[in-house]
Design goal:
Mean pLDDT: 72
Shape: globular
Helix content: 25-40%
Oligomer: single chain
């Protein structure tokens, strides 16, 4: 899990302001942050700036001071940065969710497919229900957790720079610390929420820093100091605000269309059910062998990161890792099925029917299918 790679993360946050920006929430107390910064500076070696580029625009998004001994890897590498005394900063994991208590809004969220539909959770709930059990399975021992105002302050600065269109935004960041088989670990959790009317979008980010026990405090201080002193590029902010304004208008248009389509589809379904009566169940019985193909979609034909912390994101989002050991392919898909089949075109489905084979069924054998095993 990495924390400096804003390139995917910032664009995700800007995109998730679908109808929105924010009314700023109060930032952490200035005195508290100053005290934290002073403490963080102790034992921190001379720093250099690491610039983060927006690959789409080619502009510098932000820059962060990091110790000169830290080596930053390629943005797509599983380990974002490495350094002395066993320092390893993992690539960041991020997942977006949406929620509404309105059933029609829920249907629209599902139809759009941009976010997973899930009720929001607090960082305390996520820590207790997902992070701690998954960390324990990897041999980690929980030491403690605390707020991370340095990190929350960075994200609040980003939100404050975005155009205010009436949405409410909040951010919570917490540092969790662990004893591990190889030393000590810091897992950073960041939760952002954007509320506009009946729609709530929440984003969970997690990052892990590993280190030898005797160097942990030094690396921890440098890590938080870097986050607290991250500098956003004003020119990039202005550019993205223009992009955001355009995207908000497009999102409003698409959401209105999907909402209208959702309502129309609902009425049509109710009318069809009333007209067909028992004929509906009879037709369903004809295809009983494939009715359990409920997890259908299109795969991104690229391998996913299988770092240990990805299990936490999987557990929260309800996803499963499927794999084929002959081809070496691995994909993250919605969980819930016992068996998965993947086509040569990248479509997939999950089924609980152990006997069903899409290659021999005339309704599905127009393409080649490969069976994938559930790995976690």
């Amino acid at each position: 899990m990495r924390y400096l790679t804003l390139l995917l993360m910032l664009s995700s946050l800007l995109a998730c302001a679908d109808a929105n920006s924010q009314q700023p929430s109060p930032p952490p107390g200035d005195a508290d942050v100053e005290q934290l910064l002073a403490a963080s500076m102790r034992q921190v070696e001379p720093t250099k700036y690491n610039e983060v580029l927006d690959r789409k625009s080619g502009m510098v998004q932000a820059r962060f001071p990091i110790p000169q001994s830290w080596r930053v890897n390629h943005p797509e590498a599983p380990i974002f940065a490495e350094g002395p005394d066993g320092l390893r900063i993992h690539r960041q994991e991020s997942q977006q969710y949406a929620w509404s208590s309105d059933p029609m809004m829920q249907q629209t969220i599902r139809m759009q497919g941009t976010y997973q539909l899930m009720q929001p959770q607090t960082l305390q709930q996520i820590l207790e229900n997902y992070v701690r059990p998954n960390a324990a399975n990897q041999g980690y021992s929980f030491v403690g957790e605390a707020p991370a105002p340095e990190v929350a302050g960075f994200w609040q600065r980003l939100y404050n720079a975005m155009p205010n269109t009436g949405s409410r935004r909040s951010v919570d960041a917490r540092v969790t610390e662990w004893d591990t088989p190889n030393g000590k670990s810091l897992i950073l959790l960041v939760l952002t929420q954007t509320t506009n009317g009946q729609l709530l979008i929440w984003n969970l980010m997690s990052t892990e820093m590993e280190s030898a026990a005797n160097a942990y405090n030094r690396h921890r201080n440098a890590y938080l100091y870097s986050y607290a002193n991250g500098q956003l590029n004003p020119a990039w902010i202005r550019h993205m605000n223009g992009e955001l304004a355009s995207q908000l208008r497009e999102n409003d248009r698409q959401f209105a269309e999907e909402s209208a389509r959702s309502a129309s589809a609902h009425r049509q379904r109710m009318q069809a059910i009333a007209a067909r009566g028992t004929a509906a169940s009879a037709a369903g019985q004809t295809y009983s062998d494939i009715l359990d193909i409920s997890h259908q979609g299109f795969l991104s034909r690229s391998n996913i990161n299988d770092a240990g912390h990805a299990r936490t994101i999987d557990a929260i989002s309800g996803t499963a890792l499927i794999g084929n050991h002959e081809t070496g392919e691995h994909y993250s898909v919605p969980a819930g099925a016992n068996y998965y089949w993947v086509s040569s075109q990248g479509t997939y489905f999950g089924t609980d029917n152990a006997l069903f084979n899409p290659n021999t069924d005339q309704r599905t054998n127009d393409t080649e299918w490969t069976k994938f095993a559930v790995e976690r």
